[in-house]
Predict the structure.
Amino acid sequence: MKKLLIFIFFINIFNFQLKAQENKAQDSTISNKKYYALRVGLDISKPIIGFTNDEDRTEFEIVADLRFSEKWYAAIELGISDKNTIEDYLDFTTKGSYFKLGANFNAYENWVGMNNEIYIGARYGFALFDQTLNSYTPNVYGTYFEGETIEDGTTFDGLSAHWVEFIAGMKVETFKNLFLGVSISFNKMLSTKEPENFSNLYVPGFNRVFSNDAGIGFNYTISYQIPISKK
């Protein structure tokens, strides 16, 4: 619920910013030049969510996109994760790294002098990680454990996951070449390597894995655009 409220808060801010820019742009005399540029930034959602949820969580993600046509952007995200998850009968820690690669399509028609996005996109994601089972109560989550009993503190290493994401979001140029962004993603696991007697309930970059191998992600970014050329 906290994640959803934060997401709605950011959406309202960006909608207000877009309206303000549209009103200003109607009287603008700035030429409508198209910039083909590299944009690099950070996902600030993970420390925000970790702070508001009081989670033992250290995650860092670099985001980048490259505009290669008027409407299309190539995009990549690279990240690391060290997250402790505590549930009613289960305590485990996930450590690993991931990358996501894909593209965005900007469906927003900018006014003269504006450089904003309301976009849809897709990603392919891949993660390498370890899971450490810190403690659990046996015979409670039968779907989590199969086979013989696992000792507390057992680490399962060399795990991996492949998935796809479908994304919708927006990016607003708040100052020249400085952008704030927000997005929501719907994730579907393609395949995952996991221990025979312990399921991967959390995957770096994918987030919480639900019973249908699906997940949801939120993203809040701050990024800087480096112009490459004009057209």
